[in-house]
C-alpha cells in the first residue's frame, strides 16, 4: 500500500495594524478651529457698527488702511493708551488701560512700598542700639496719608524741655538715626508738632500753637542735618493740642509728640503744588464795556494815549 504524502498547511494570522495617534492631532485641530469660530461669533455679536466697519475696511484694503487709517481699529474703551512706536517691518502694539485701573495699580504699588519701608524701619529699630533704646517712644503705623512715625514723650524722658523748642541730645540722636532711612526714599515728608492741653504761659503772645510749630521746625532741621534732603520736606505744621493722642487724659505726656509722615504721592497732590484753581470771582478781569472800548481803540489806532508829565516829586509808576 502506497503511503500518501503528509501535507502541512500553515495559516498566517494577520493582526490589524496599530492606527497610531494621528486621529488625536486631527481632533485637536478640529477643537481649535471650533473655539476660534465661536470666538469670532462672540466678537461679531458684541462689536459696535463702527468697529465692524473698521474691520471690514481693513480686510478690503489692508495696505491703504495701514497708510491712511488708525493702527487700532477697535477701541475697547478707556483713555489711557500706551503705544510702542516701531519701524515698518515691526507691528506696533497698543495697550488700552482704564484710568481707574491705572490709579488702583499705582495705589497698590505705593501701598506695597510703604509696607516695605515699614518693615525696614522695624528691622533698623531692632538692630540699632540708639533706636532700640527709644523703642517705647516710637509709634509706627500706615495711614491714608502714608507711613507715620510718631515720637512721643514718656514720663521722665521728654523730647524737649518744658516750654522750649530745643531738642534734648538723645532726641537729636534719635532723629539722626531715622534720617538715615528717611533720606533714602523719594517720598516727601510731613512734620507735625503736638503739645498737651496744658496752657503755655512763658511769655505774652506765645502759645502752644507757636510752641508746636517751633518744635516741628526744630525736628525738621535735625532731620536735614541727619541726611534728609531739603526738597523732601513738603509740610511743617504746628497743631498745638487740637489733635490729642490720649483724649481721655489731655495733659498726658504721650500727647506731646512729633509726627513724621512719609507721604504718598496722592497726599502730596492734596497738599498742593503751588497751582491755584480758577477763581470764582475775578475782580481783576475788565468788564465787557472796557474790553469793547479797548478793542475799538486798537482798531482805530488810538490805543496809545499821551500822558502828562509828572509833577516834581510825584511818582509815575
Could you characterize what this model shows?
A hairpin with an 8-residue loop joins strand 1 (80-84) and strand 2 (93-97). This protein has a five-stranded mixed β-sheet with strand order 3-4-7-5-6. It has 317 residues and is an alpha+beta fold. The longest helix has 29 residues, at 99-127. It is built from nine helices and seven strands.
Write the layout of secondary structure elements.
Blueprint lengths: L21 H25 L2 H12 L1 H7 L11 E5 L8 E5 L1 H29 L1 H5 L4 E5 L3 E7 L16 H14 L6 E6 L13 H19 L6 E6 L18 E7 L1 H7 L16 H13 L17
Parallel strand pairs: 5-6
Antiparallel strand pairs: 1-2, 3-4, 4-7, 5-7
Helix pairs in contact: 2-3, 6-7
Shape: flat
Query: Which stretches of 5+ consecutive residues score pLDDT under 50?
Result: 76-92, 274-278
* Largest sheet, spatial ordering of strands: 3-4-7-5-6
Largest sheet: 5 strands, mixed
Tally of helical segments: 9
Oligomer: single chain
Q: Which series of helices and strands comes N to C?
A: HHHEEHHEEHEHEEHH
Portion in strands:
5-15%
Through-space gap between termini:
159 Å
Helical/strand content category: alpha+beta
Rg on CA atoms, Å: 39 Å
Amino acid at each position: 500500500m502506497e503511503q500518501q504524502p503528509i501535507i502541512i498547511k500553515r495559516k498566517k494570522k494577520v493582526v490589524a495594524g496599530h492606527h497610531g495617534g494621528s486621529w488625536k492631532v486631527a481632533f485637536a485641530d478640529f477643537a481649535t478651529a471650533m473655539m476660534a469660530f465661536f470666538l469670532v461669533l462672540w466678537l461679531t455679536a458684541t462689536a459696535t457698527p463702527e468697529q465692524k466697519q473698521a474691520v471690514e475696511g481693513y480686510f478690503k484694503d489692508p495696505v491703504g488702511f495701514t497708510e491712511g487709517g488708525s493702527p487700532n481699529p477697535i477701541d475697547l474703551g478707556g483713555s489711557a493708551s500706551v503705544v510702542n512706536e516701531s519701524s515698518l517691518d515691526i507691528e506696533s502694539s497698543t495697550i488700552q488701560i482704564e484710568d481707574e485701573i491705572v490709579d488702583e495699580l499705582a495705589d497698590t504699588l505705593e501701598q506695597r512700598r510703604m509696607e516695605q519701608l515699614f518693615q525696614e524701619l522695624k528691622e533698623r529699630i531692632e538692630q540699632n542700639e540708639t533706636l532700640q533704646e527709644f523703642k517705647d517712644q516710637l509709634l509706627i503705623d500706615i495711614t491714608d496719608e502714608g507711613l507715620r512715625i510718631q515720637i512721643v514723650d514718656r514720663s521722665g524722658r521728654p523730647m524737649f524741655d518744658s516750654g522750649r523748642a530745643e531738642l534734648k541730645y538723645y532726641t537729636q540722636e534719635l532723629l539722626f538715626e531715622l534720617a538715615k532711612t528717611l533720606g533714602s526714599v523719594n517720598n516727601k515728608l510731613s512734620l507735625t508738632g503736638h503739645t498737651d492741653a496744658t496752657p503755655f504761659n512763658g511769655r505774652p503772645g506765645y502759645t502752644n500753637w507757636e510752641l508746636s510749630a517751633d518744635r516741628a521746625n526744630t525736628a525738621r532741621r535735625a532731620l536735614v542735618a541727619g541726611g534728609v534732603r531739603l526738597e523732601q520736606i513738603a509740610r511743617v505744621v504746628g497743631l498745638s493740642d487740637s489733635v490729642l493722642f490720649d483724649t481721655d487724659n489731655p495733659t498726658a505726656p504721650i500727647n506731646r509728640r512729633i509726627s513724621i509722615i512719609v507721604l504718598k504721592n496722592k497726599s502730596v497732590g492734596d497738599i498742593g503744588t503751588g497751582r491755584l484753581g480758577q477763581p470764582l470771582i475775578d475782580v481783576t478781569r475788565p468788564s465787557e464795556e472796557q474790553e469793547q472800548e479797548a478793542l475799538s481803540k486798537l482798531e482805530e489806532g488810538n490805543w496809545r494815549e499821551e500822558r502828562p508829565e509828572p509833577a516834581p516829586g510825584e511818582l509815575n509808576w
